[in-house]
User: Fold this.
Amino acid sequence: MLKLLKLEYYKNLNYRPFKVFTILYFAILIALLFIGLAEFTIFGSTINFKEQGMYDFPAIWNFTTWTVALLKIFLGLIIVFSISQEFSNRMFKQNTIDGLSREEFIGSKLITITIFTVISTIVVSAITMYLGFQYSKTTESAQVYAEIFFIGNYFLKLFTFFCFFMFLSILLRKSIFVFLAFFALWVVELIVGGIETFAKVSGMQGPQRNEILQNDFFFSRLLPLESMSSLIPSPVIRLNMAKAMGLKYEFTYPTESLIACLVWCAIFIVGSYWILKKRDW
Assistant:
């Protein structure tokens, strides 16, 4: 493992986009976690997310993980550029000539993915705890740790997303094709989800419609991007102004999405290895 870690370190140390996007990601991540301390004017009304309950335990775990997960594309860019440049510069072929096996190549990329995911998760956890203890209305132990499972969901969401980009990068080799494929899959999942939702709730109204949307099984939620997204639901409905409008927050742990993400992780890793073994590079 130490050998693979050193190999990845020396490869990426001199690769400028890797350093730029890494610094950019963590800078924006930290700034975004503190966004609730600022005031925003929307349609003439001043909104302070801290006063809206963004930093209150236990909801803060939902708010912070959902917010920073929006930035995962930055780390995804790092993964894509790092792998794509190995094929475009023929580094992979040279490494295999020098004795690097397919298993070691996949292992080195998984180490990089794991390190990024772990560091990101630790940073989010530490800042969430700090902000919570600074600004939450309650710091009772039961409330502080009631929804800490969102951190685990965040870790799995990032790891699955990066494995997905690793798979696309090895499959397509060109970064532009990777992003086109990502966008195409996103559109396809939106269409599939829209069709399935329309078919299930067509003709229904009121509570029955909402119950179907929240509790019924949707095949689209097992698709790669949707299963990742479902791990951390949007916390907007938990804001105080949403509660004042009569909106009620209801959450059922997305066990099916968690299982789907684990399965997709395995598919992406095994698929990446299979492609490397089958292709004549």
